[in-house]
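[Q] Does anyone have a clean structure-token version of this?
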Amino acid sequence: MPTSSKPQTSAIHRVLIDSGADPKLIHPAIEEIRNLSGQNVVTAIGAQITELRSDVQTRITELRSEVQTQINELRAEMQTQINELRAEMQAQINGLQVQITELRADMQAQMNGLQAQFTALRAEMNHLTKIIWMLVSLLFIPMLGLLYKILTS
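[A] Here you go.
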């Protein structure tokens, strides 16, 4: 409630005069009442600020807890997804390793088959070489005879 800047016309002033108070003490009494009122207001505001600060601190603590809970949940979800992806990738790697092993076995089998064919071809070539030399030898004798006839005639 606003107080008048003129203490002589205020309700407190009139009450104090009507009650027979000493006129010298009326003005200081009014000022003291104003000061006490101000202190009460400051105390009330201080209490409200303290209460508000406590409420804000409580809410901050609650929010911090909620955020930490959400972070922990996100971490757990991410770890689960990472583990699933890791397992999936490991399965794919294992599948690729099996395929590589099978491919190596196939390639080794083909190389062994080619080596066997190469060995068989070499043996056949050696055999054909012997036959060709025998045929050359057989042809060489009649040719020598022909050459002798040509030269002697």
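[Q] Thanks! Anything notable?
[A] The helical segments are 11-18, 23-152.
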